[in-house]
Write a structure and sequence with these properties.
Length: 79
């Protein structure tokens, strides 16, 4: 990476088990054996969100409407 990041280590239940703030570019963080995943976030995100050890992270995705031929104007019938 070419810029600093915040790294939040999560276990299988998405519980925060370790935090590395402002991890410098081209540096390696310590291996966390119990981590199932790591969120790489913009620097300052941990501080601004008040993320702490023991927090549970909820990861959700915004649902977007599915375009079908009936809804897409490009496929509208010609009258």
């Amino acid at each position: 990476m070419r810029f600093p990041i915040d790294a939040v280590y999560l276990d299988r239940e998405r519980i925060v088990i370790h935090i590395e703030e402002e991890l410098k570019p081209w540096r390696l963080a310590a291996v966390r054996v119990h981590a199932a995943s790591v969120l790489e976030l913009p620097t300052g995100t941990v501080r601004e969100s008040l993320t702490a050890l023991g927090d549970q992270v909820d990861i959700s995705f915004e649902e977007r409407p599915i375009h079908t031929e009936a809804r897409c104007p490009r496929f509208a019938p010609v009258l």
